[in-house]
Design goal:
With 318 residues, the chain is an alpha/beta fold. It is built from 12 helices and 12 strands. Helix 1 (13-25) links the parallel strand 1 and strand 2. Helix 1 runs parallel beside helix 12 and helix 5 crosses helix 7. The chain starts with a strand and ends in a 10-residue tail after the last helix.
Length: 318
């Protein structure tokens, strides 16, 4: 079979070649494209003749899936798969596997980091030093003693909850189904309204799908405590970002730490959150650590080897 890796995975090419050795030893062909492209025609060309296509977080649209006549499996080096043409995969019976778990630690750590940035006013403090100013107006707040609400108590939500708990926060959690893992992480599971009404910090950890798209809108923001902080290292399209910007500018919320948007950066001129008050922005880097890149590359290749061997794992329900 032909296996095509269509984009870099954030590890050296020498590591890619090493991870590909079991595929080639089994008699399969492996091809690697060392640059990223969003061009549909080029993606189709790279996919031509491939039984297995390997991608990361670059979009792999339905038209490319449909044009790849030999395609049987898409290996996604990412947790979310919403950037893949899933309808086309479903129509054609293409198996989709992800790398869930590779970035649990990295996303949880940035979630806490953004929270501290907002509470301790790290960005304006940095600007003050560079401008020759003092600490005037830079009084911060602590995580310790606060109530943190984790919306979505999957692996990443639980990892974030454990970290917040280590800071001395009370941690609440909301999910559609109670989780034993959340209880073990010290997360007190409560209804959503209770979480929003009691939390000083609300952190979002949900997947993006048809149910969650636009789910966290003005109505839920209105239920949050006045002066609360909102953090999103999950998916930007889950949130009504215009409503979030309005809440920041009106003082309803005291700050936000945002790593994800309803589009991939660069953000267009006039994007509401870019000029919102007390909002720390990062360009979708929560997953992006050296350690996480190594973990996901290994999981990605293990998924392909397992599928080729007839024992697929990390298969996503379509």
């Amino acid at each position: 079979m032909r296996v095509a890796l269509l984009e870099p995975l954030g590890v050296p090419e020498s590591r890619i070649r090493e991870l590909a050795e079991p595929i080639e030893r089994a008699g399969h062909e492996f091809v690697y494209f060392g640059d990223k492209t969003a061009d549909v025609g080029e993606l189709a060309r790279r996919s031509e003749g491939a039984d297995v296509v390997m991608i990361a977080n670059n979009p792999y649209p339905a038209e490319v899936v449909r044009s790849a006549g030999a395609l049987k499996m898409v290996a996604v080096a990412f947790t979310g798969i919403d950037h893949v043409g899933l309808d086309a995969c479903r129509e054609r019976g293409v198996c989709v596997c992800n790398c869930a778990g590779y970035s649990d630690v990295s996303v949880a750590e940035l979630t806490v980091g953004l929270t501290i940035d907002v509470l301790r006013k790290v960005v304006p403090a940095d600007a003050a030093v560079r401008a020759g100013a003092t600490s005037a107006g830079l009084m911060g707040r602590e995580v310790c003693g606060k109530t943190v609400g984790i919306v979505g108590t999957g692996h990443i939500g639980c990892a974030a909850g454990r970290l917040f708990g280590a800071f001395g926060a009370r941690v609440l959690g909301y999910a559609r189904h109670e989780s034993g893992a959340a209880r073990k992480a010290g997360i007190e599971q409560v209804p959503l309204d209770e979480l929003l009404g009691e939390s000083d910090i609300v952190s979002l950890h949900l997947p993006l799908n048809d149910t969650t798209r636009g789910w966290f809108g003005a109505d839920k923001i209105a239920r949050m405590r006045r002066g609360a902080v909102f953090v999103n290292c999950a998916r930007g399209a889950i949130v009504d970002n215009d409503a979030l910007a309005d809440a920041l500018n009106s003082g309803k919320l005291s700050g936000a730490g945002i790593d994800v948007f309803d589009m991939e950066p660069p953000l267009p001129s006039g994007y509401a959150l870019a000029s919102a008050k007390n909002c720390v922005l990062t360009p979708h880097v929560a997953f992006l650590t050296e350690e996480a890149m190594e973990r996901r590359a290994k999981i990605e290749f293990d998924n392909v080897v397992s599928w080729l061997g007839g024992t697929p794992k990390n298969v996503c329900a379509l």
